[in-house]
Design goal:
Structural class: alpha/beta
Strand content: 5-15%
Low-confidence stretches: none
Number of strands: 5
Order of helices and strands: HHHHHEHEHHEHEHEHHHH
Radius of gyration: 25 Å
Shape: flat
Mean pLDDT: 87
Distance between the termini: 59 Å
Helix content: 55-70%
């Protein structure tokens, strides 16, 4: 196809896209097309000056993506997401997961939302790449759901009834010592727990369940007549929901940040409430954004303004 004459505006977008793709190793043409809501063929033709459709419309979509990405990049440079720090919760979780991993045991770790459970799990899995990790949900909660997630996490394809799936998993995992790790485990139903118990018994792989205290509605002393076999196997670790002042300081006093005692005290108060460190971090970043826009250091007034917007605090 011959090159189609394009306007200066479209040519400017083509040059901008090429510069963006050259700078961003994490964004391919295919990914950029998906972000813009156009086909890969349309983007390829557009960049070559051979797009036979409405080039201005494609340029408009691409411009919207580039503007968003530039804004996001500037925001990240100005207001940096805190790096993961080793909190007291992380230390306790790490000890429990190491115990289960070393002894091929079953462990159930539970605590309030927002205290860093998922962050800790992600860090653990990044260091233990042979782990089989997935997150339960209202749509992933029964025995078959769990087996399908385990197979998908192992990049294995298997269809059939529950018995067929279970046999396939046992055959693959037997003697492997590959830990099965499930976040949001409080969504699991009895059939899922029983399925996991059978897989553990047959393969002796470590099994780590992490969730909110609601998991005790299933795994509890009063309910052990229904979950007796799982109950007797699981080590249970309760995470203290009390956040320390040192944990708050370690999170917010990064990247050269300097906060006065009033700011630290208010952030600590928020971290001690519902949502804990997760909500506190969101409040901190929002207050930092407000202060950065006004070209000043974070003060207590910025935190108060941020609280009016983040209604959960």
């Amino acid at each position: 196809m011959s090159t189609i004459e394009v306007s200066d505006e479209v040519m400017e977008v083509i040059e901008r896209v090429n510069a963006f793709l050259a700078k961003r190793d994490d964004v391919s043409q295919e990914k950029l097309a998906k972000m813009a809501g156009i086909s890969g063929g349309s983007l390829s033709g557009f960049l070559k000056g051979q797009y036979g459709g409405r080039a201005e419309r494609v340029a408009q979509k691409l411009t919207a993506v580039l503007d968003t990405e530039e804004s996001r990049g500037e925001a990240v440079l100005a207001v940096k997401e805190p790096e993961v720090v080793e909190t007291s919760v992380m230390q306790k979780m790490w000890f429990g997961m190491q115990y289960a991993n070393d002894r091929n045991d079953v462990i159930c770790i539970y605590g309030a939302p927002g205290i860093g459970k998922t962050i800790t799990l992600n860090k653990w899995v990044a260091q233990h790449t042979n782990s089989i990790f997935f997150t339960a949900s209202p749509n992933i909660h029964n025995g078959k759901d769990v087996m399908e997630e385990i197979l998908e996490a192992m990049n294995k394809k298997q269809s059939g009834r529950n018995k067929t799936l279970e046999k396939a998993i046992i055959q693959i995992l037997n003697g492997s010592n590959r830990a099965i790790i499930i976040d949001e485990a409080h969504f699991l139903r009895l059939t899922a727990l029983e399925t996991l118990r059978r897989i553990h018994d047959a393969t002796n792989v470590p099994l780590i369940l992490v969730g909110n205290p609601a998991i005790l509605d299933i795994i509890t002393e009063q309910n052990k007549t229904l979950t007796g076999q799982f109950f007797s196997r699981a080590v249970r670790i309760a995470l203290d929901g009390k956040i320390s002042l040192n944990d708050v300081k370690a999170i917010v006093l990064q990247n050269g940040m300097d906060l006065d005692n009033d700011c630290i005290g208010e952030l600590y108060r928020v971290a001690s409430g519902v949502g804990a460190l997760r909500v506190m971090t969101k409040l901190f970043l929002f207050a930092w954004t407000i202060a950065n826009s006004a070209e000043r250091a974070i003060g207590i007034e910025d935190i108060k303004k941020a609280r009016k917007v983040i209604i959960s605090v």
